[in-house]
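W.,

You were right to be curious about this one. When I first looked at the sequence I had no strong expectations either way, so I just let the prediction run and decided to look at it fresh. Below is the sequence, 258 residues in total, followed by the output.
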Amino acid sequence: MVIKGKAINNRHEKIIALIKSNGFATVEEMAKLFNVTPQTVRRDINLLNQEGYVSRYHGGAGLSVSTENVAYRHRRELFLNEKKKIAQAVASIIEDNTSLFINIGTTTEYVANELVNHKKKLRIITNNLNVAAIMSKKNDFEVIVTGGIVRSKDCGITGEAAVKFISQFKVDIGIIGISGIDLDGTLLDFDYSEVHVAKMIIENSRKVYLVVDHTKFGRNAMVKLGNIKEIDTLITDKQPPEKLMKIISSNNINLVIS
C-alpha cells in the first residue's frame, strides 16, 4: 500500500494496532518496542496522522476521532492478511445452498471473494455493490442488490429504500462488518444510515456472523448499532480482550479465531 509515495509498512500496522488496543502510546515506548529511533516513530506518527489512522498528540499518538472513519481506499489494504484469514474461516463454516445478507465493509468483501472460490448455489442479498460485482461472477449464485442511495466512496447502498427492501426477506445468515466494538459489547460504526441497514440485517437473519479483525476491539466510533449479545458467531483473527471474552462466554456466542 502506498500513500503519497510512502509505503504503509508492517511497523505502521503495528503502531495502529497498539494505539487501538491501548488508546494511547508514547513515542518513547514505541521506539523501544519497535527498536527504532524516536525520530523514526515521530515520522511514522506524522504520516499516520495525516492519513487519519491515528491522532498525533504531544509525546505520542492516540485514537482518531470517533466521528469519521479511515478512508475506504486505505481500509481495503490495512491488515490485509488478517482479513483474508477471517474470510477463509467464514467460508469454511458456511454450507452450500445457504441464503445470506452481506453488508458494507472491506472485510465482508474479502468474505465474498472466499465464498466465490469455495461455495455453491448461494443466494445473496447485499447493499454493497463491490460484493455484488464479486459474487455475480459465479454462475450458480443468485445475487440480489437492494435499492437506495449509492455512496461514491465505497459503493455501499444506504437509505430507507435499502432498509425496506431488506425487511422483505428472512435469510439463513447475516454477515456484517463494523467499525468498532466497545469493551462493554456495544457495536459501533460511523454512519447512521449504514447502521440502520445493518440493524435490519440483524433483525431478519436466523443467525448473525460478525466479521472483524482484532483492531476493532475497543475502537471508538460514534453510532451505536447494537450489542454483541445479538450475534451468534464472532469471527476474528485474535482472542478479544478479557472484558469482551466474559460477555462472549456468558452469552454463548460462538467464537472463531482464524
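Here's what jumped out at me. The longest strand covers residues 205-211. And, maybe more interesting for your project: The domain at 74-257 is CATH 3.40.50.1360 (Rossmann fold).

Coffee later to discuss?

I.
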